[in-house]
Amino acid sequence: MMPGTWWSNFEGVERRWARNRWAVLAVFLPVYTLFLLLVLNAVRLLLLIDRWPPWSTLRELPSEFASDLTSPGWWQRSGTAIAIFVALQLLFLMPVWRQPIRADSQGRSLFISTVIAGGIGAVLVVAVALAMTFFLGIMEWAPDLEQHSLYMPALGVLLGVSWVVWGIAIWIFTRAPWPETRLQRTVGILLSGTAIELLCVLPMDIMIRRRTDCYCWSGSYYALYGSVAIGIWLAGPGVVLALLSKRRRTWREQHCGECGYAKGPRPGLRCSECGFRWR
Question: CA 235 to CA 133: how far, in whole Å?
Answer without folding.
Answer: 29
